[in-house]
Amino acid sequence: MGLLDGVRIGWFCVGWKPISGGAELAHHHLAQRMAQEGANLTVYTMAPKYQGDSEISDYEVIRFSEDYTGTKPIDQNYWDYWSDKASKPFARLQNLIDAVTQEKFDVFIIYNYTDTLGWHLKGMDSFKDTLLVSTIWDPDGKRFEPWSNWTWSIPADLEVLGSKYVANLIKDQVGHLRPVIDLPPLKVETKADYVWDSEEWESRPYDFCFMNPIPHKGVTLVAQLIGRMPDHKFLIKRGNYQDQSLIDKLDQWYPNVTVAGWYDHMDDFYRQSKCLLYPSIQEGFGMPPLEAAANGCLVFANDHPIIRDATPEGPVFIKGYPELSYQNFWLWSYQSSDRVNADIINAADVWESVIEETLWDPELCYQKIQEGLAYYPTHLQRVEDAFDRFCQYLRRDTHE
C-alpha cells in the first residue's frame, strides 16, 4: 500500500519539464514519487513540450501552451517562447480555472503563485474541502522583503520549502497560521558509487568545474577567478535555462577554459574535475555541492545559509560577498553596476586566497573530501524522513 493511495492531487506550476532548472527537476521527481505512492496526480503548466517529445508517463500533464517547434534542448528561443506564455497572469489564471472548475481534488499544490491563484481557488465551491499547498523555491524577484516577511498573506493550508533553513525562518512568522515544513529534492543526480582513490583524484584532467553560468549562480566571480588563475584548468557546463551567452565568451577569452558537452549522467561531469566552484548567491536548495561531494570533488561554496544547510559537511565555505547579498540577493543585485562589480572583485580576492591556501594543504583537502563523501547517506535519510512527513500532511485523515 502506497503512502498516498487514492489521494486526488492537482498541481499548478508555470514551468515544468522539459524546463530543467533546480526547482522544475525537484518538482518532477516529487511528482514521480507521489504517483508511485498511489496518488492520482495531474500537473497543469504553461511550459510547452517539444514537438515529437514523448509524454511523461508517470502522471498526467495538461499544458496551456502549444508545442514548441524548435529542435534543440532548452535554448534561448525556447526560454523566450515560454516566458511570453508565462508572463500573462490573467490568461494563466483563466486557463487554470477553466481546467479545474469541474474537478474535485483532495489536495491542490501551487508553486510560487499561491497569493494570486490561491484566493481564486479558495473561493470556488469545488475547492472548499481541498487542502491547498504552497510550494516555494526561489523568492519572487519583484519582492524586496526577506522570505520570512512575505508569505503570511497567502491562503495556503500547508507551506512547503526546499530548504529547512528557509522553512524555519518562515515558521517563525506564520507558524501560527499554518504548518510550514521543508522537503528537499528527492533525487540526487549521482549513482553514489564513487569509492575514494587519491590517485584517481589527482589524475582528473581539470582543476575546477562550474555549471549553469548565469549571474545568480556566480558566473561573474568565476570569470574573475579564471583570469587570475591561468595555470588552472576550468571545465564549464552549460545550464538548461536562461541566457547562456557568457559561456561562449569565456571559451573565446581564456585558453584555460573548456566548455563541457552533453553528459548522460552528471557523475561523468563531476569526475572530470578535482574541485567544484559554487559561488551561487541565490538558492532554493543548492544541490550541486552535495552531488559533487558524492563524486569525490573538493567543493568550494559560497557560505550562504541555504547552501550550508543542504550540505553542512564537506565544502570549504567562503564568505566573500557583502552581507546584503546574503539577506536579499535581488536588493543587492539591483544596485548600480559599479557597486555590484566592485563587490564581485572584492569577493574574488577572498575566493582566490582561500582556494590557494586550501590547495597548498593536501591533508585539509583530503579531510574535506572525506567529510563530503561521508555526509551523503545522512542526506538520503533526511530526504526520506521529510517525504514521509509531507505525505502525512497530504492524507486527509491527518487534518480532520
Can you offer a commentary on this structure?
There is one protein chain. The chain has 400 residues and is an alpha/beta fold. The protein has a 7-stranded parallel beta sheet, with helices on both faces. Strands 10-9-8-11-12-13 form a 6-stranded parallel beta sheet, sandwiched between helices. Helix 7 packs across helix 14 (337-359). It has 2 domains: 8-187, Rossmann fold; 198-376, 3-Layer(aba) Sandwich (Rossmann fold). The radius of gyration is 22 Å and the shape is globular. The chain contains 15 helices and 13 strands. The mean pLDDT is 85.
CATH class category label of the largest domain: Alpha Beta
What is the CATH-assigned architecture of the largest domain? 3-Layer(aba) Sandwich
Number of domains in the coordinates?
2
Name the helix and strand elements from N-terminus to C-terminus, one letter apiece. EHEEHHEHEEHEHEHEHEHEHEHEHHHH
The beta-strand count equals 13
Oligomerization status of the protein chains: single chain
* Beta strand %: 15-25%
The span between the termini is 21 Å
CATH superfamily of the largest domain: Glycogen Phosphorylase B
Biggest sheet architecture = 7 strands, parallel
- Unreliable spans are none
Spatial strand sequence of the major β-sheet: 3-2-1-4-5-6-7
Q: What is the CATH topology classification name of the largest domain?
A: Rossmann fold
